[in-house]
């Protein structure tokens, strides 16, 4: 079946391409914002110089490694795993799996029987290799000029002190620890300290409400909650400790009393005198942790022991506790980081994600540190004090790899180029994108303006559930297509299936599934293995169902089209909301767009588009028509929006995802069913949208 695999065939034909040939970068010639005649076929090649120095420098090399990885996963991954420290080796098999729910319980195991520790591999190993003096973390505070750094040796000491403290207060292997911290160095330190003693961390993004935090505390019953008193984001101070206080009251009410709240005093945001305090429960980090020894023995854990829980939202209201285990996750995050960003020891790496999300787990903390990388951790907001902050930071630390989300790219794009071009950005060599499909016009701006047409973009498709990158460019190997995540990572076998679960070959679109397990896969939903099977393995028996729609073009490139719940069926045509959005935002006067389906008498569903215009552009009838025209021209008349709804702002979660649920309700005029809008970054945009509905 492998030989007939579509992907393999495509890759084979791609190897005929001249690798890194002659910079066909059509893009360089394009004036920014002007749509290309045919974006689909536009390829952007890495430069010869880039490819020459890359870890994977040609389609042929990718192909060889990929083929090996899927034909002999045990051999491929055990070779890679051997580069890590294992107290004991796996036995008897490298992996075992049952992905087919009709054949029994779904179960993935990698390196079972092996004993290791991810903290030991990420920190101690670097010190022991003689890199103790290398900077592990550059920390950049909210206020420019407020900064700090930790070498690997210093990081090890800090981690050990906290690990010793946690043991002292009774945290043992397998116990849960809830972490509610902003992007201070203490956040990765805390994650690593938990991992060191085999405790299971559950990081809750410090933008979640008390209620959401309480829900997560109640679910995993931690011995300790770790937080800080306050944080400043931009000019706003947020009193995190008060949120924790309410969450802890709520959890007591639900029969989950937490005896200890370790609180870091974040002096730049709030003094301890001003912090509300519960004697007997609350302890200042600075009063206790520094008194503990700077050496702490490692707890060796089984590769299949739990490493962390991370809650993510599903189609129902109850968040799912995605559970990752130690060994496979370690090998997978480290390896994906290395190849997708073409990591070299001299790199300075900055990922703008918060450790409260999977991207921060895998690609702020674990993946980079496992590679001995120097990581920038940024506490603040990317537009504070102004929209040039990111590039200021890039220049300050000479960042070489910059990894962010399309929503940030688009919002900075809207502010104009001057904020970018004011800074040198000469250090940059690889850019990255994650979280949603990146529309070609944002891609082009990122590539041309931010990267000065020099830096390949790794558009990494993956999920909380997958642990690490699944479909991603390897920047030196492949010509890129703006908006495509390109090809699968080693060991990953994507398939596109139809509604009945039949694999479709060639140029097609459908549901994206994954055949076979991979080391970084989640192993269960905490306390609910049944929901794990129902959500992910029952929809298409024999596969892991990603929940995403996807198409594959004639060259075998994968194009993620968004969650399938966001697919609209118009007169029998399936249209990805992302496709329509991408068309809309390619309009020079459109900054952002969100498309939802609404009931339509004749077509089944109609297309309803919320559109944010470029700053200063007024909404007009003429503009409305030209927006519709651009969609007709790029996709087809059937995809033309039925309604353009002018949106000065879009309802987004604090992680930047557009809340389509709310948009669907506004679009269908079900205003009394808007639901909970409190998790929005800015709930006031909803009222604005309602006001403008008939505009
Ligand atoms: C890593 C992360 C997962 C969902 C996923 C998909 C979307 C993420 C993407 C992308 C297109 C990319 N997504 N990366 N879509 N291109 N490069 O974001 O995890 O928060 O669990 O979200 O995000 O829809 O299914 P998570």
UniProtKB/TrEMBL annotation:
Q: Where is the AMP-binding enzyme C-terminal domain?
A: 579-657
Cross-referenced CDD domains: ACS (cd05966)
**Residue ranges of domain AMP-dependent synthetase/ligase in the record:** 129-517
Q: Which GO terms describe its biological process?
A: acetyl-CoA biosynthetic process; acetyl-CoA biosynthetic process from acetate; phenylpropanoid metabolic process
Q: Which InterPro entries match?
A: Ac_CoA_lig, ACAS_N, AMP-bd_C, AMP-bd_C_sf, AMP-binding_CS, AMP-dep_synth/lig_dom, ANL_N_sf
Catalysed conversion reaction: (E)-4-coumarate + ATP + CoA = (E)-4-coumaroyl-CoA + AMP + diphosphate
Q: Give the record's keywords alphabetically.
A: ATP-binding, Ligase, Nucleotide-binding
Species lineage: Eukaryota, Viridiplantae, Streptophyta, Embryophyta, Tracheophyta
Family per record: Belongs to the ATP-dependent AMP-binding enzyme family.
* Residue ranges of domain Acetyl-coenzyme A synthetase N-terminal in the record: 62-122
Instruction: Please give one Gene Ontology molecular function term for this protein.
Output: acetate-CoA ligase activity
Name recorded for this polypeptide: (wild Malaysian banana) hypothetical protein
């Amino acid at each position: 079946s492998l030989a007939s695999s579509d992907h393999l065939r495509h890759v084979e034909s791609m190897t005929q391409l001249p690798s890194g040939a002659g910079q066909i970068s059509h893009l360089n010639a394009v004036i920014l914002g002007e749509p290309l005649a045919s974006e689909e076929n536009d390829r952007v090649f890495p430069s010869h110089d880039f490819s020459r120095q890359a870890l994977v420098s040609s389609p042929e090399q990718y192909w060889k490694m990929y083929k090996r990885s899927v034909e002999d996963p045990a051999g491929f991954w055990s070779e890679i795993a051997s580069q890590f420290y294992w107290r004991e080796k796996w036995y008897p098999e490298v992996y075992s799996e049952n992905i087919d729910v009709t054949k029994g319980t779904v179960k993935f195991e990698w390196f079972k029987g092996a004993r290791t520790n991810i903290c030991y591999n990420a920190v101690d190993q670097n010190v022991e290799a003689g890199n103790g003096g290398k900077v592990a973390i550059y920390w950049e505070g909210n206020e420019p000029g407020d900064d700090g750094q930790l070498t690997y040796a210093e990081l090890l000491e800090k981690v050990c002190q906290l690990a010793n403290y946690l043991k002292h207060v009774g945290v043992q292997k397998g116990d849960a620890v809830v972490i509610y911290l902003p992007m201070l160095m203490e956040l990765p330190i805390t994650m690593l300290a938990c991992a060191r003693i085999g405790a299971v961390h559950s990081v809750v993004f410090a933008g979640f409400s008390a209620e959401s935090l309480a829900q997560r505390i109640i679910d995993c019953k931690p011995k300790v909650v770790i937080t800080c008193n306050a944080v400043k984001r931009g000019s706003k101070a947020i009193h995190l400790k008060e949120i924790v206080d309410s969450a802890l009251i709520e959890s007591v009410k639900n029969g989950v009393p937490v005896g200890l709240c370790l609180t870091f005093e974040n002096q730049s945001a709030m003094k301890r005198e001003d912090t509300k305090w519960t004697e007997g429960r609350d302890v200042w980090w600075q009063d206790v942790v520094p008194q503990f020894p700077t050496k702490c023995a490692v707890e060796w854990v089984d590769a299949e022991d739990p490493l962390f829980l991370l809650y993510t939202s599903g189609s129902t209201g109850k968040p799912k506790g995605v559970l990752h285990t130690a060994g496979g996750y370690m090998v997978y995050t480290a390896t994906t980081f290395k190849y997708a960003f073409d990591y070299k020891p001299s790199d300075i790496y900055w990922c703008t994600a918060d450790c409260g999300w999977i991207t921060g787990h895998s690609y702020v903390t674990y993946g980079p540190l496992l590679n001995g990388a120097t990581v920038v951790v940024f506490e603040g907001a990317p537009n504070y004090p102004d929209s040039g902050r990111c590039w200021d930071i890039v220049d300050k630390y000479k960042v070489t790899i910059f990894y962010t989300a399309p929503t940030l790219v688009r919002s900075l794009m809207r502010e104009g180029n001057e904020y970018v071009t004011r800074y040198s950005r000469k250090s940059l060599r690889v850019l990255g994108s994650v979280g949603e499909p990146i529309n070609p016009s944002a891609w082009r701006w990122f590539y041309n303006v931010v990267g000065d047409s020099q830096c390949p973009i790794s558009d990494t498709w993956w999920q909380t559930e997958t642990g690490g990158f699944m479909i991603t460019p390897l920047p030196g190997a492949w010509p890129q297509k703006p908006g495509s995540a390109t090809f699968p990572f080693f060991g990953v076998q994507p398939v596109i299936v139809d509604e009945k679960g039949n694999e479709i070959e060639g140029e097609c679109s459908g549901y994206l599934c994954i055949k076979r397990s991979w080391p970084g896969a989640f192993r269960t939903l905490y306390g609910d293995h049944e929901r794990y099977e129902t959500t992910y393995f029952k929809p298409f028996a024999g596969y892991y169902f990603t929940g995403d729609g996807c198409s594959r073009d004639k060259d075998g490139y994968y194009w993620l089209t968004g969650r399938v719940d966001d697919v609209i069926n118009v007169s029998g045509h399936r249209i990805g909301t992302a496709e329509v959005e991408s068309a809309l935002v390619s309009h020079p006067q459109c900054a952002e767009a969100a498309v939802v389906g609404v009931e339509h008498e004749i077509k089944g569903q109609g297309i309803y588009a919320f559109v944010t215009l470029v700053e200063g552009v007024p909404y007009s009838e003429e503009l409305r028509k030209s927006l519709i025209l651009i969609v007709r021209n790029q996709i087809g008349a059937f995809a033309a929006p039925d309604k353009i709804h002018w949106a000065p702002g879009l309802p987004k979660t604090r992680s930047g995802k557009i809340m389509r649920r709310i948009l669907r309700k506004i679009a269908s005029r079900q205003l009394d069913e808007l639901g909970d809008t409190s998790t929005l970054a800015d709930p006031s945009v909803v009222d604005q949208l309602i006001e403008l509905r008939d505009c």
